[in-house]
Amino acid sequence: MSSDYLKKDIERVDKKFKELKNKGELEAIEKKLDSLEDNPSSSSMDEIWVQIYRDVLDLKKKKENKD
Fold this sequence. Notes:
Elements lengths: L1 H22 L2 H13 L5 H23 L1
């Protein structure tokens, strides 16, 4: 069951990565990530978004290095 969950999670992240890359929003994500990290009064929801943005950017860098 956990492998099915991980497979679906990987597919979801990969799909989101492709959407973001196609829309050219990766630079906007980097700026948003910077603003969230610089915010001294961030909430737990902001911390979740920071982690999501970091994961998407890490995927981008890995895919670019493979090409």
